[in-house]
Amino acid sequence: MKEDDNIEEQEELFEHYHYVADKGQEKLRIDKFLMDRIPNTSRNKIQLAAHNGNILVNKEKVKPNYKVKPMDDISIVLPYPVRQLELLPENIPVEIMYEDDELCVVNKSANMVVHPGYGNYSGTLVNALVYHFDHLPALPSGYFGRPGLVHRLDKHTTGLMVVAKTENTLTHLAKQFFDRTTQRTYQALVWGDVEEEQGTVDLYLGRSLKNRKLMVGYPDQDYGKHAITHYKVIQRFGYVTLIECKLETGRTHQIRAHMKHLGHPLFHDLEYGGDKIIKGTSFSKYKQFIENCFKLLPGQALHAKTLGFHHPVKDEFMEFDSHLPSYFQEVLEKWERYTHRA
């Protein structure tokens, strides 16, 4: 039984499978057992998953040679199989924050789609990284010919992403994201004066029944997936607020949908209603001020500022921080001046 939806349904690019062995199950190596049940996989991938602790039997990690017994409760986390698309290398500048033989951390720019798909077959971050990897002096021995993704950012969201170079690292990172042991914080400018200094949004998110491109809140898991966002106020500007968001889960449009649900859509969010004046005055000067701010932003004011994870080979926790894009900072400075004048 496959528990997670396809790649379009979530930000985190891994899948979780869960099985319970039949009462009459004959003893069988678990790698063979899983190979017979999981599509688009290989024995090597399953063995790598076991090596990294991604296979649990009765909630305990097992090796590839474990023999499945009747009624065993089995779960496995795997990176998504590669899409059947030709990944063309493109010489597109990418800001690399850190790189070694196993992975790289990039600071994604705005207006960049992460991976090729319908309507975006070129100009993506993956196309840029294929070119970058191909032009390195040497590639790791385990390099498998494509950048490995376990999470993504929306087109207009900027900030930090980790990308695997080897299958082993990809599998290891997928488990970390599934187990929620990574640390990610975002900064967002939202409409309105957020009432509480800090809070938590705990709300199931699923596709809108009216517009499949949007995520909305649901009361239970019948229509949505569990999503948790912790937020705190960084700076108040009266009509807008700069907040920090810490993700416990990584659902599609999670911060954008959660803040919309609270009545504080992200500033200049083109899809969730933040691209019009929601708070403020009716004065023409104020309207012009907002328009000037909007012109600086390609989309929602959201930046993935920090990222932390365990390095799969070095066995150490690595943390990265990034500056806000210059246009985001300029919008904040405009609000600072406007607030002081008001």
Explain how this protein is built:
- It is a single chain.
- The protein has 342 residues and is of the alpha+beta class.
- It has 3 domains: 7-78, RNA-binding S4 domain (Structural Genomics Hypothetical 15.5 Kd Protein In mrcA-pckA Intergenic Region, Chain A, Roll), CATH 3.10.290.10; 95-179, Pseudouridine synthase (2-Layer Sandwich); 185-304 and 327-341, Pseudouridine synthase, CATH 3.30.2350.
- Helices cover 22% and strands 30% of the residues.
- The protein has helices spanning 30-35, 43-51, 125-134, 167-179, 254-261, 284-296, 326-341; strands at residues 14-20, 28-29, 55-57, 60-61, 67-68, 73-79, 95-99, 103-108, 143-149, 158-166, 183-191, 198-202, 204-207, 215-218, 228-236, 240-247, 302-310, 317-321.
- The longest helix has 16 residues, at 326-341.
- The chain is globular.
- The model is unreliable at 1-10 (pLDDT under 50).
